[in-house]
Amino acid sequence: MKIGTRVTLNLIIVFTVGILISGIALASVLDAKAQGEVNSKASALMEMNNSIRNYTNERVQPLLLPKVETEDKFIPESIPAFSVREIFEYFRNDPEYANFLYKDATLDPTNLRDKADQFETQIVNKFRENPDKNTLSGYRTISGAKLYYTAKPFSVTNESCLRCHSTPEKAPKSQLATYGTENGFGWKLNEVLGTQIVYVPAENILNNARDSFILITGIVVMVFAVVIILINLLLKRTVLQRIKNIASVAEQVSVGDMNADFGKQNKDEIGDLAEAFNRMKYSLEIAINMINKKRDNR
Ligand code: HEC
Question: Ligand 1 pocket: which of 58, 85, 110, 114 to mutate (most atoms <8 Å of CB)?
Fold first, then answer.
């Protein structure tokens, strides 16, 4: 194998391994960054929803509860879970946030729009099996869109909630009139009943991470390719071409052409080699002349 080919091959191997290792590291860094970004959005929304819940509970409900007891139709604005969901729907009216979702996904909800679907039921079951877990997160695809979700377990910790969520007999008449007697009853204290789950679109953020990955890796590959080409050129110009010349001159000298010349050489290792060959050529010339003279004298 020629020296140039061998050097190129070795460089390609070293660079490929380098690009692979740095590529894996870069991918995991970008992935963690993208995940951190969607996660921080989801966490902020979750906190916001809790604030709405507390506000409705402390400030709105006390004003409306008397009406809930007396009017025929239930006033859902008195319910924190309702406020959170409705305010989130307002938030989703902005096209930029249309793909965000929030749900009080409950196994047996009062309002059936809060019913946990199959995926959310699995999350609720995970929380039931692991009581120490207080968040689960990951990716889920809903109608073609990739979403990142953060879920927290929901359980009733306050006896007062059970007035409306234990048996229809205890609940206000207006609640039964609006929601019926079938759904949202039989809840038990401290049992995981559902999950508060926020969905944040992840597609753009993940695509951005992928684009950055392709761009950075592309630049690195290009830089390496240029380096390989430059090293090759340099090797050819400063070493290989000159050695070839010296070899061909030496070849000519070896077949008796004493006029063959090594030419002007740079002052470097190869120049020294040419110089040494030159001296050898002269010594050879002198030796041959001496032999010829001796033969002529005979
Ligand atoms: C006055 C009756 C009443 C009380 C008290 C009450 N709720 Fe509700 N709750 C409701 C009604 C009615 C809904 C359905 C609202 C809607 O239309 O979204 C509801 C909905 C919910 C939901 C959403 C899931 C579902 O069932 O649709 C959660 C979670 C919830 N309540 C938790 C609680 C907690 C926790 C408490 C105690 C802090 C509590 N509730 C107290 C009547 C009540």
Answer: 110
Per-residue model confidence as pLDDT tens digits over 51-81: 999 999 999 999 999 999 999 999 999 999 9
CA dihedral over 294, 295, 296, 298, signed as positive or negative: positive
The distance between the two most distant Cα atoms of the chain, rounded to a whole number of Å, is: 146
Other beta carbons within 10 angstroms of residue 253's beta carbon come to 20
pLDDT at 18 over 90: yes
Q: Token pair of 44, please?
A: 């902020």
Buried/exposed 36-60: b ≥16 CB within 10 Å, e otherwise: ebbbebbeebbebbeebbeebeeeb
C-alpha pair distances (Å), 166 with each of 4, 66, 183: 83, 20, 10
Report the distance separating Cα 199 and Cα 18, nearest Å. 38
How many whole angstroms separate alpha carbon 244 and alpha carbon 235?
A: 12
pLDDT digits (tens, 9 = 90+) for 224-253: 999 999 999 999 999 999 999 999 999 999
120 lines ligand 1 (CB under 6 A): no
Quote the CA–CA distance of 205 and 213 in Å, as a whole number.
12
Does the Cβ of 82 fall within 6 Å of ligand 1? yes
Whole-number Å distance, alpha carbon 170 to ligand 1 midpoint, is 14
Across the chain, mean pLDDT equals 95
